[in-house]
C-alpha cells in the first residue's frame, strides 16, 4: 500500500498549488507525478484528498477530490507560556514534542531572569508545521511573539491558570492533581506558566498568584525549562481523561 503524503496548505480549499517549500518536497524528494494522490491539511480542522494535476520543477498543482472534516482530539484549550532557554535548540526540541502531544497555543515569556529576549518565529513555525504533519494534527498551534511576563498575566484568560515554580516558601500543589479537580464551569481550558533557567523571580510568582494563577509544582524532580514545558503539556492532556473518569 502506498504511503499517504500530507502537506500543510493554509486555505487549501481556495488554493490550487502547493506552497514553495511543500512543492520542493513533493517534487524533488517524493517525486510525485501527475495523477498521484496527496492529502492536504489546512490547519483549521480539515484534511483534503487531492490529486496532482501538474508537476514541474517549480510548481505542484492539485485538484481536491474530497473534503475530510476532522474531529478535535482533545477537549478545551491547551496554552503553554514559557521563557525560552538561552540555547534555542532546546526550545525547538520542546516545540516539536509538545506539538506531537497536543497543544493549541504557545507564548514566549520575557521574565526577570530570562537569558533570551528574542526568538525567531519563522524557524519555530517550520518546526511546528513539520510536527503537525508528522503527528497528523488537524489544527495548527498558534505561536506568539515574545511577551513580557507582566503583560501576559494582566491579560484576561478563560479556564484554569497555573504558575509552576520551585519556591518552597510559597504554598504549591501538584499540577496534575489540580488539573484533575472538576471545574465548577466544567472548563477544559488551561494555561500553565513555566519560568526561565533559574526560575521566575519570587516577586513574579506573587504577582501571578495575585492575578489569579494557582501556584503549582511539577513533581519532586527539578526539571530543565524545556522538560518542564513538555511535562506540563503532557499533564494537561492526561488530566482530561482523568476528569472524565471522575
Task: Give the helices and strands, then pairings.
Blueprint: E1 6-8, H1 20-29, E2 37-41, E3 46-55, E4 60-69, E5 78-82, H2 88-101, E6 105-110, H3 121-135, E7 142-148, H4 149-154, E8 160-164, E9 173-174, H5 175-180, E10 190-194, H6 202-210, E11 214-217, H7 225-245
Helix pairs in contact: 2-3, 2-7
Describe the strand arrangement of the main beta sheet, using strand numbers: 7-6-5-10-8-11-9
Structurally, the number of domains stands at 2
Instruction: Return the string of H and E elements.
Output: EHEEEEHEHEHEEHEHEH
What's the overall average pLDDT, rounded? 92
Unreliable runs: none
Superfamily (CATH H level) name of the largest domain: SPOUT methyltransferase, trefoil knot domain
The helix fraction, in percent, is: 25-40%
Morphology call: elongated
Q: What's the CATH class of the largest domain, please?
A: Alpha Beta
Amino acid at each position: 500500500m502506498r504511503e499517504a503524503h500530507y502537506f500543510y496548505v493554509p486555505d487549501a480549499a481556495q488554493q490550487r498549488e502547493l506552497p514553495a517549500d511543500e512543492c520542493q518536497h513533493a517534487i524533488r524528494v517524493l517525486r510525485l507525478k501527475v495523477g498521484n494522490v496527496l492529502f492536504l491539511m489546512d490547519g483549521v480542522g480539515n484534511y483534503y484528498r487531492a490529486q496532482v494535476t501538474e508537476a514541474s520543477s517549480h510548481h505542484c498543482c492539485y485538484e481536491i477530490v474530497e473534503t475530510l472534516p476532522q474531529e478535535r482530539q482533545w477537549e478545551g484549550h491547551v496554552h503553554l507560556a514559557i521563557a525560552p532557554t538561552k540555547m534555542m535548540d532546546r526550545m525547538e526540541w520542546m516545540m516539536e514534542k509538545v506539538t506531537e502531544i497536543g497543544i493549541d497555543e504557545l507564548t514566549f515569556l520575557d521574565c526577570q531572569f530570562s537569558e533570551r529576549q528574542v526568538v525567531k518565529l519563522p524557524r519555530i513555525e517550520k518546526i511546528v508545521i513539520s510536527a503537525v504533519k508528522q503527528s497528523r494534527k488537524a489544527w495548527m498551534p498558534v505561536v506568539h511573539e515574545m511577551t513580557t511576563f507582566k503583560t501576559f498575566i494582566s491579560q484576561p484568560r478563560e479556564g484554569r491558570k497555573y504558575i509552576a515554580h520551585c519556591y518552597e516558601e510559597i504554598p504549591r500543589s501538584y499540577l496534575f492533581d489540580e488539573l484533575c479537580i472538576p471545574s465548577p464551569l466544567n472548563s477544559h481550558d488551561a494555561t500553565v506558566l513555566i519560568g526561565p533557567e533559574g526560575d521566575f523571580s519570587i516577586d513574579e510568582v506573587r504577582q501571578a498568584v495575585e492575578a489569579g494563577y494557582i501556584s503549582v509544582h511539577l513533581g519532586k524532580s527539578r526539571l530543565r525549562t524545556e522538560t518542564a514545558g513538555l511535562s506540563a503539556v503532557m499533564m494537561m492532556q492526561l488530566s482530561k481523561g482523568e476528569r472524565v473518569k471522575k
